[in-house]
């Protein structure tokens, strides 16, 4: 996911970019959504504000994106649609460290676009759906990290890629987003190492110890 | 953390409860906050709505809690102040499973009070501070789970309790709160087992592989 980009214009008018006018309109509108979200928050987002900021006519914005949920969903859909692939560092721990470094950078970035998008997902069902789709896609693309580790003989077969990847990344989201711990770069390396040790010890395999009944409640 | 409780009244007037009138007022107000939050959401919370629902005069509510942030903070402070201790099941995996079953129950409860409180923490700094304090307190109380495992010889000394506990619980928050995965009770058992395997394999110790530079951005 890219940070908000500014719209480049020459003195003679809009710069031609690949994808033509429709792509250019989308780029300007989504840039405006990102910038407005991190500057003023979810409550200030609206078709009118985005139209004004992007310089795109409000009728066009309304026709194509309908409402704030549609705009946020498209910001996330755009992020999913890129050609991102997980880096191949030659080891499971190295690959997980590379992934976690990206997650860490996103969760501590200024402006805090990722955090703002996640916060918005608690207020908008389309944004929540788009965020879920974005993550599902990322976990699918990252499954190759686990496949490679199995092929190298680093891991036993039967390791569930999504479960390992969630275990490797979840502590970062938990610390930085929910517990709001002061960021410390070693969080990324620690979670990568802990998940690697767990996987090598046979965690994340499909054998279940059985269902769990409900317990006492806790936040 | 308890679910919203209804206020009990006899025909003759308010029932006497331990703690006297001040405690009774707090109980009624916090009950109203919980019920209103899960029924109508953060946007509908306000001093007036809470005063009306609780039957406590708005001046009293305003004087004691000031605003919505103060009300949410006190809901969380009340949850922290209870006499909760982690169950002692005799094994690390059993203890983590008991904890995770509580987290699972809280995150899938109806009405979804925990989820609503976490969502509110993205909108209110006092609620965010109170949530952080609540979790810090829980992790501290749960450190005994790790101490016991070390004493039993299940784990090597040097295991960081908070890091192990975050690793055990974070996948549940990640799946149920952020990824909005369809709840499956085995999530609790799987995360408990994975964290136990990791801890036995030497994870969550203080040796760091070094700092990590920032990587590419990703949601």
TrEMBL record, chains A, B:
Keywords in alphabetical order: DNA-binding, Transcription, Transcription regulation
Coiled-coil residues: none
Provenance organism: Plantactinospora endophytica
Record feature DNA-binding region, as residue ranges: 46-65
Sequence ranges of Polar residues compositional bias: 1-10
Signal peptide span: none
Residue ranges constituting the HTH tetR-type domain according to the UniProt record: 23-83
Pfam families: TetR_C_11, TetR_N
Protein name: TetR family transcriptional regulator
Positions of the UniProt region annotated as Disordered: 1-21
Gene3D superfamilies: Homeodomain-like, Tetracycline Repressor, domain 2
């Amino acid at each position: 996911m890219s940070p908000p980009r500014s719209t480049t214009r020459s003195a003679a008018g809009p710069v031609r970019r690949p994808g033509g006018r429709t792509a250019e309109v989308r780029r300007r509108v989504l840039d405006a959504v990102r910038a407005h979200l991190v500057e003023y928050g979810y409550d200030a987002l609206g078709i009118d504000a985005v139209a004004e900021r992007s310089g795109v006519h409000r009728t066009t914005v309304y026709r194509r994106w309908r409402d704030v949920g549609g705009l946020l969903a498209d910001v996330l859909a755009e992020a999913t649609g890129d050609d991102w692939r997980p880096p191949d560092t030659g080891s499971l721990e190295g690959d997980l460290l590379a992934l976690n470094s990206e997650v860490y950078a996103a969760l501590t970035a200024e402006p805090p676009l990722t955090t703002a998008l996640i916060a918005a997902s608690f207020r908008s069902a389309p944004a929540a759906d788009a965020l879920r789709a974005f993550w599902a896609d990322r976990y699918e693309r990252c499954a190759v990290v686990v496949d490679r580790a199995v092929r190298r003989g680093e891991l036993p077969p039967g390791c569930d890629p999504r479960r390992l990847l969630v275990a490797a990344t979840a502590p970062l989201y938990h610390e930085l987003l929910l517990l709001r711990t002061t960021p410390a770069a070693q969080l990324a390396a620690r979670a990568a190492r802990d998940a690697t040790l767990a996987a090598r010890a046979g965690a994340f395999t499909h054998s279940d110890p059985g269902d769990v009944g409900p317990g006492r409640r806790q936040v």
